[in-house]
Automatic annotation (TrEMBL):
One of its GO terms (biological process) is methylation. The gene is Mettl13. This is eEF1A lysine and N-terminal methyltransferase. It comes from Galbula dea. Keywords: Methyltransferase, Multifunctional enzyme, Transferase. GO terms for molecular function: methyltransferase activity. Residues 434-444 have a biased composition (Basic residues).
Length: 686
């Protein structure tokens, strides 16, 4: 039995609907959900004394159930199908005396003006507005005009719809221009039904007298919990908000039916601020053998650790899911702009939402565990936030790492998953909620650093490798006491130039930084300071090197580039492309001593671009070593201007070991986890 129309235009044909209902018989056909699902929204907008008009009623039981449940009694149902009207009259005439069914075209209704308080439309608009052809739009305009005519001022037009973009936009634009208040609800629970993958929405258009001149549009969307309203500025924003919910429903539907081949990520926003509160990644591990209790788990990433390889990369999350032993793991990252009470409150907040991401085959009433590192959500305190004209918004924050260590980090919010600079703190940081000693009478001011920076510890693996590369200079045993001229382009928090300054006792370090805000941050928050052997120049590194190349060739023993790119559209985030163009690299070579070393931190995800950069470097520098940082995109390139300085790879580790012994001087603390030889074990010659 084929009940589908031959063309969309047949949805507006009385003969099609007569044939449809004759073939379907007495079985009710419920467009877009039954009464229990629609009841919460109907209760908000339909009062017992309202006179209700249902347009395109079909043989739905909605009116009957509204009547029988006492929601309202005075209900008039109309439809263009004579067959269905006769059927419905027979069904209700003896049971529901105050409810009527009339054969009538809603495009030309016989009712007087302002006859109803509510007009109810369950799928009728969707059936008519099948395209955006001129004739179709004219028919819809006529429908809206008739609904407007028969509604009283203050009356509500409730339209249940799948909210296709052209349908929603047409309804919103028409009624908002008429001065009506337009509100959109999502029907709760509709995503769990099998009739439609996409959720059902209700447009609630409330009639107001049209004000002459320009009146502000009132457009609102209700939260999924139906307890909060969010006002939007335009029809486009309303359509976009609905699209977000449709995409989420589609995603949940797909995840409930099959494993996801690629990791899926989504943001859950705060109800008040509408800013991201949680970032979720759905990771499936099909190779994990199924058992009774390993279907699904949630992993809360401790605050401040979302940038670590295990949590911040696809490969790391895949390893985490596999080692956790669950077939589907949802990792949850917490955002620094938000406040969290603790694991219990997060679990209560997320429990219902994460179940929408459950895998296929999850047993009913299965207890889903919430996991974390050490069972807590970590600690994070934002110490300082500001905006730089060059770097944009940034924050300085203190976080608790693995174990008892605390770290200070600089984050550029344009790339919030990347730690720009990091330093270990010498003493535990007082965080809110922690007990203080009795003698600590004053609360720490958020404007002041609470603890000293441990300058002896290089947090970043690529900084350790860059320092280890200095063993390529001369005799590593005497290097710490030999006068060295070192140029560092890119200051950040200042950890790299500070370490070179403090451990190479005769080194004169010149730092070039384009952003003056970074010098303020490094000085105030990372204990950076200038002196006789440490000078900072606020300048573009390109200009500084070019000027120096024209004035003082062969000036530096070592040149280090650790400078980020502000252009996030390029597949290389460090350095900016101009820093690895051949003419500029030739200038770098000009200011480097013949036996010197140029150390470059390269972060490039574009394989072809990386290949091109390496080829250009090789053209300029005959001797090129590379050290890939494990678990990161960073690769450290050591470039020397003369091939005569080439050493066996096995020799590099030995030289680094000698340099480390020389650097471990009395009075200079050295972290035992920092082994220079390890930094050069995986070096290769390019």
């Amino acid at each position: 039995m084929d009940l589908l129309p031959r063309s969309p235009s047949e949805f507006g044909s009385a003969s099609y609907w007569d044939r449809f209902f004759r073939q379907r018989g007495q079985r009710p056909f419920e467009w877009y959900g039954a009464f229990p699902e629609l009841c919460p929204v109907l209760h908000k907008y339909v009062r017992p004394r309202d006179k209700v008009l249902v347009v395109g009623c079909g043989n739905s039981e909605l009116s009957e159930q509204m009547y029988d449940m006492g929601m309202c009694k005075d209900i008039v149902n109309i439809d263009i199908s004579n067959a269905v009207i006769r059927q419905m009259q027979e069904r209700s005439q003896n049971k529901r005396p105050k409810m009527s069914y009339l054969l009538m075209d809603m495009l030309q209704m016989d009712f007087p003006d302002a006859q109803f308080q509510v007009v109810l439309d369950k799928g009728t608009l969707d059936a008519i507005l099948t395209d955006e052809q001129e004739a179709t739009l004219a028919k819809v305009d006529k429908m809206f005009a008739e609904i407007s005519r028969v509604l009283q001022v203050g009356g509500r037009y409730l339209c249940f719809s799948l909210a296709q973009t052209h349908v929603l936009k047409k309804a919103v634009e028409y009624f908002s221009q008429e001065g009506w208040v337009v509100r959109v609800h999502q029907v709760a629970g509709s995503r769990d039904k099998q009739q439609f993958v996409l959720p059902v929405f209700v447009y609630v258009m409330t009639k107001f007298r049209k004000i002459l001149g320009s009146a502000p549009q009132i457009l609102e969307i209700c939260s999924e919990e139906q307890d909060k309203l969010m006002r939007v500025e335009s029809a486009e924003q309303l359509v976009a908000a609905v699209k977000d919910r449709q995409h989420y429903a589609l995603l949940c539907s797909q995840l409930s039916k099959m494993p996801c081949g690629e990791q899926v990520s989504l943001d859950l926003c705060d109800k008040e601020s509408r800013r991201p509160r949680y970032t979720l990644h759905v990771v499936d591990s099909p190779l994990v053998k199924p058992s009774q209790d390993n279907h699904f788990a949630i992993f809360i990433i401790p605050q401040g650790r979302e940038t670590e390889w295990l949590f911040g990369t696809e490969e790391g999350r895949r390893q985490l899911a596999s080692s956790a032993g669950f077939r589907r793991l949802v990792t949850v990252a917490l955002h620094r702009e938000q406040h969290y009470e603790g694991m219990a409150s997060i679990q209560a907040e997320l429990s219902a939402k994460v179940m929408e991401l459950a895998p296929p085959g999850l047993p009913a009433r299965q207890q889903v565990p919430f996991l974390s590192v050490g069972g807590d959500i970590g600690v994070r305190m934002v110490r300082h936030c500001d905006t730089s004209p060059l770097s944009g918004e940034y924050v300085v924050e203190d976080v608790k790492g693995d174990g008892t260590c605390y770290f200070r980090r600089l984050i550029f919010l344009c790339n919030r998953n990347v730690v720009q600079s990091e330093a270990r703190l010498m003493a535990p940081v007082p965080f809110p909620g922690q007990k203080k000693r009795r003698k600590d009478k004053k609360k720490p001011s958020p404007a002041e650093p609470p603890a000293a920076i441990d300058k002896s510890y290089l947090c970043c693996e690529h900084h350790k490798a860059m320092v280890a590369g200095l063993c390529l200079l001369g005799n590593p045993d005497s290097l710490p006491g030999v006068p060295l001229a070192v140029l560092v382009v890119g200051l950040g928090g200042g950890s790299l130039p500070l370490f070179v300054h403090d451990y190479f006792l005769q080194a004169h370090v010149t730092v070039v930084e384009i952003d003056p805000s970074m010098l303020e941050v490094a000085t105030h928050w990372f204990s950076f300071s200038q002196g006789d052997r440490m000078k900072v120049h606020i300048s573009d590194g390109l200009d500084y090197v070019a000027k120096l190349a024209s004035e003082a060739p062969a000036h530096y023993d070592a040149i280090m580039f650790d400078v980020d790119s502000k252009d996030l559209m390029v597949g290389m985030s460090c350095p900016p492309p101009a820093f690895v163009e051949k003419p500029f690299l030739q200038k770098v070579k000009t200011i480097l001593k013949p036996e010197g070393v140029f150390v470059l931190n390269l972060v490039c995800r574009d394989a072809q671009l990386k290949k091109s950069v390496v080829a250009t470097l090789r053209d300029v520098f005959p001797l090129l070593y590379a050290r890939r940082i494990e678990g990161e995109v960073n690769e450290i390139l050591f470039c020397q201007p003369s091939p005569e300085g080439q050493r066996e790879l096995s020799e590099l580790g030995a030289r680094a070991q000698v340099l480390e012994r020389a650097l471990r001087q009395p009075g200079c603390p050295w972290d035992s986890s920092y082994v220079l030889a390890d930094m050069l074990q995986a070096v290769k010659i390019l």
